[in-house]
TrEMBL record:
PROSITE patterns: MOSC (PS51340)
Entry keyword Transferase: yes
Molecular function as annotated in GO: molybdenum cofactor sulfurtransferase activity; molybdenum ion binding; pyridoxal phosphate binding
Record-given protein name: molybdenum cofactor sulfurtransferase
GO biological process terms held by the UniProt record: Mo-molybdopterin cofactor biosynthetic process
Keyword tags: Molybdenum cofactor biosynthesis, Pyridoxal phosphate, Transferase
EC code: 2.8.1.9
Gene3D superfamilies: Aspartate Aminotransferase, domain 1 (3.90.1150.10), Type I PLP-dependent aspartate aminotransferase-like (Major domain) (3.40.640.10)
Lineage: superkingdom: Eukaryota
A Pfam family recorded for this sequence: Aminotran_5
Domain MOSC: 388-467
Catalyses which reaction(s): Mo-molybdopterin + L-cysteine + AH2 = thio-Mo-molybdopterin + L-alanine + A + H2O
First-level EC class: transferase
Length: 467
């Protein structure tokens, strides 16, 4: 059915003088309600589409009202609109009373409602329910995720701020600075950027009509229960991209784990080298990961358990130069070769003491006096040497193993979302999440939409490599 009114043709040369003093819905990226500020959309044509009236549809309003009166006639002193109003309110009341009882296993409410009433009086409450869904730890679920899951179940919802930025800001308890921060982070009106640093930019709204039935409300509630209470960790498995409308097809990509950092720890117990691009894999893990160790005069490997200042030694790998640069606050950096020749260096045997590999005998190449003196000055301990491990190390039973100096496995993965969840549970003082993540000394730092999703991973594929 046609809804347009034709086209307005404008010469681009007139753009500079066609500056309106007003704006309407659909023409701005952001509009503030507590101060005089808005920013128009970048496309020139979008600035003139102020919620254009649908004249052809307006012309059919009378026929529409006649159809409603035929389907829902006046009855018992109630006209058509009064009957519809009461009916949709009862549906909303029923849905609200069902949703308000939903709780996680730990007692955390599943739903955060946005309303002024408790659905007791139809004169001050319409036939809608506006809300956000909460995870078990109280964190918000993004409305885009909910919209995708609902679409798979053939349920149509409206999400966002519903062209009401004032109410949206008030109910979500967003300050003006919060609104500006969300905008600078990429969120604009009517997009699907639903969470910015865990803070919602909008909500979910269920709207009821005269054609809605009680079974439709039950279907919506069952979908929420199935996806967020019965098996919340598996909820995203419901999403079938082929069943989504085109406007939502891009969203499921956001629910996949994102690789945030690749970290290489060249020297055991020392700081990380954070990769800014791709990085090679070897049979022992990431190239150069935990390939060196610092030993004392007795041949024992140093660890942070006994020498906490090791974490202040920061390595920088220059693969193009074939060198590794070591830095330490207050000291001039020192460089060592990434490839130490066995013909030019003595072979030293050392035991990695009091760790999961403490029974293994490690053969390595001494990296020389220059770096040894530098380490002694940094850590204020005499007789230190930097040792580069040979290709294999031997256990007490004499068997050879091709493995790096890592304590247990060749890769350690950490989920930033899980770290954030854990920090909120136990931290007495607020610490930046990135700092806490660094404490785990992970090689692969990922981030998932919710915490602890990695507990259900059977495998993880990064690029074309399966872990």
């Amino acid at each position: 059915y046609p809804t347009g009114v034709g086209a307005l043709i404008v010469n681009k040369r007139g753009q500079s003088v066609l500056v309106k003093k007003y704006y309407g819905g659909g023409t701005v990226n952001i509009a503030m309600t507590r101060e005089d500020f808005h920013e128009k959309r970048f496309e020139f044509s979008s600035n003139f589409e102020d919620g254009t009236l649908s004249f052809l549809t307006i012309a059919n309003l009378l026929e529409g009202f006649n159809t409603l009166e035929h389907l829902v006639p006046t009855k018992m002193g109630k006209n058509t609109m009064q009957r519809i109003s009461r009916y949709v309110f009862q549906l909303a009341q029923y849905g609200y009373e069902k949703l308000v009882t939903l709780k996680h296993a730990n007692g955390q409410p599943l739903i955060q409602f946005y309303n002024h009433t408790s659905y007791k009086n139809s004169s001050c409450q319409g036939g809608v329910i506006t809300f956000n869904i909460l995870h078990e730890d109280g964190a918000f679920v993004g409305f885009a995720e909910v919209a995708c899951l609902a679409a798979v179940f053939n349920i149509q919802l409206r999400t966002g701020c519903f062209c009401n930025p004032g109410a949206c800001q008030w109910f979500l308890q967003l300050s003006d600075s919060d609104i500006r921060k969300q905008y600078k982070s990429g969120h604009i009106c009517s997009d699907y950027n639903d969470l910015i640093d865990g803070v919602p930019t909008g909500a979910v709204r269920i709207s009821f009509g005269f054609m809605t039935r009680k079974k439709d409300v039950d279907k919506m509630i069952n979908m929420i229960e199935e996806c967020y209470l019965s098996a919340p960790a598996k909820r995203l498995q419901h999403i079938d991209i082929d069943k989504l409308p085109n406007s939502l097809k891009h969203i499921p990509k956001r629910f996949k784990p994102k690789l945030r950092e690749i970290c290489v720890y060249p020297i055991k117990s020392c700081g990380a080298f954070k990769v800014t691009d791709s990085w090679p894999l070897t049979t022992t893990g990431l190239l150069y990961d935990r390939g060196w160790m610092i030993v004392d005069a007795t041949g024992r490997a140093l660890t942070q358990k006994h020498v906490s200042r090791l974490c202040l030694i920061r390595p920088l790998i220059h693969r193009d130069k074939g060198t590794m640069e070591l830095t330490f606050t207050g000291m001039q950096p020192v460089e060592v070769s990434l490839e130490v020749s066995s013909y030019l260096n003595d072979v030293t045997n050392a035991s990695v003491c009091r760790s999961k590999v403490c029974d293994d005998i490690v053969a390595g190449y001494d990296c020389g006096k220059k770096v040894a003196d530098w380490l002694t000055d940094c850590l204020e301990m005499p007789g230190l040497r930097l040792i580069k491990q040979c290709d294999t190390r031997r256990g007490q039973n004499g068997s050879a193993r091709e493995i790096s100096l890592s304590n247990q496995a060749q890769f350690l993965l950490i989920n930033k979302s899980s770290v954030r969840w854990l920090t909120n549970k136990i931290a007495s003082e607020e610490e930046p999440t990135d700092n806490t993540v660094d404490r785990f000394r992970a090689n692969l730092v990922i981030e998932t939409p919710t915490a602890l999703e990695e507990n259900d991973f059977l495998s993880l594929t990064i690029g074309n490599v399966e872990f």
